[in-house]
Amino acid sequence: MSCSGCASCARGCRRRWLASEGLHEQGLADLEQQPGRHGRGRGGQQLQQLAQAAVFQPLPAVVPQQAGVGADNAQQVQRQQPEGDEAQHHQAEAGQRLAAQPAGKARNCWHHALLNSMGHSPAIARMGAPKRAREAAMCGLRVWLAVMLFAGGGALRAEPDGADIDWRYRIAAGDTLITLTEAWLAPPHGWRELQKLNRVPDPLRLKPGSTLRMPVAWLKREAAVAEAVFVKGDVRRQRNAAGGADEALATGATLQSGDRIRTGAQASASLRFADGSRLLVPPDSEVTLEQLLVLGRDAIPAVRLNLNQGGADNRVVPNAQHAPLYELRTPHVNLGVRGTEFRVQAAGAQSRMQVLSGAVHADGLGPNVAGGQGLLAEGKARSVALLLPAPDLASLPRTAERLPLRLGWAASPAGAVAWRAQLYARGDFERLLLDARVAEPVAAWPEARELPDGDYTLRLRAIDARGQEGAAADADIHLQARPEPPFIQAPAEGAVSYSGGMALAWTRNTAAPGVRLQVARDAGFKDLALQPSPIAAAGYEARLPDGVYHWRIAAVEANGHAGPFGDPQRFELKPPPPAPPPAEPEVSGDQLKLRWRADEGVVRYELEWARTAAFDGADVQRFATDKPEVALPKPSPGQYFLRARAFNAAGAPSPWGQAQMIEQPYPRWIWLLPLVLLPLL
Question: Which InterPro entries match (predicted)?
């Protein structure tokens, strides 16, 4: 006789189990509805643990209480307990039948179901009827819970992170399901589950070289750490994310689950995880290391990060056998990774992600985001688009000789509205030194004064109208900016000299006392007019033919190493204005008038009048006029010398003209004076 079951008996069975666990119907409903991670019920997780505790306890066998059958001959009627799928099928049927019938009948369904599914037990046979009923009820309820849990009871299922990811183990000689379970799986998972998952006919005979699936969620777990392989600038680490000690992060430091990293302006940090995967935290960012674990004997990494703000550049190491469990969350989207390189930015109400290689899964989005694609997440909205190609760096100078550093490139590609420029140690993309988002195709970093001369790599990405950063273009840059050139003191830019030369002056660099001077006839300094040996003085007189010249200077260290040239300056040498030509003086009354030819470009004249041709006596007189003529007071009789020079609009004087002698005659009567005085002698 078998029972058909009823819903009321199932509810009664449920209430009896709840009472045995100290629960009640309303408490169960409340427990199931409690929220947990990933939207699953936290209560569901707790119920799962209770159910697993019940299911994985040994189930006692029950013997029938039939006439003529006692404890002595119980072994004669005992039959083999079914295993595998057949066992689960019998247990499910038993659970349904047991939950559907009340206890107390002579041949009740509890005993009948357990007899048909689990065999017989002398221990149960010696129990009284009430105790046997209670024991059978608990056994049946365990089976019922197992069926509900593992056959689709969604309210009770709360899979751990990565439950849908399998690790594929390559079987070696001597492996069995039992030894692999002991080495790899965490309780309560056993070799029978592994056998069923992989459909292995014989758990003791495995084919070497074949693969065995092991869900990552089943593997043993141990805490892991991350290492700060590079730290630059103001980087802070807060222990346990909230409430922990806040301290500066140093290169070589060890980080653990719960640590929070914050980077300041032009600060960055590179972290390395257990499997070699890397995380670069750029400036003005905040990342929490929510979970750092290793799974199984081979230490498969299980990393979960939370990007609170800023950016995160990720390079997850793929492995042919392992299935890396790498998850990154932002305020707007959760990303799952299994070996790829991608970037993420979180700002305001949006999160952006760019996949460089491999693929990334985003929640709320069906297909994975592939390499060369970008994801924009805003609220629940998800959109995927192709990334811009890399910019063209063909026009970028490969040597930088100026500080602050300034690098320019062609405005490309089409569709770019801005650019992300980053400077790294040459070829080392874990050592981010400078970062800038610019609206024009030029990056200027005043902070570059801190960088020593050497080789660097510029990484440049174009940014589209959606804010997505495209593919990167890299170019090596050689910085050679030291010793820095002296400051120019004279002459001013574009100065003109009429003297046939130009006086050059500069400051002195105390670290590099020598100066390298170049004077060229062209702005490109290909046609050099003057290049003396290094100059120890702070000035130099450049005597050159008339013309336009360009000049520049560089500092030279004591060991002979010369730094870059400073910005060039221009000067011009012009012939002086012609001196006024000689002119015969004209005496008119009490004035001496002089006139000469006017020359083009002359705006004024200066004359000197003296008793000697050297014009060095105390009696030298000067006269100025803006016309090519002058009227002087008539001098007393005697010999005089006169010279003149001209000035142009720039105030440059011409050389003094030739000195002219003027002889003012004495009056005629003075020659008759001796004749008058002779008679007196």
Answer: FecR, FN3_sf, Ig-like_fold
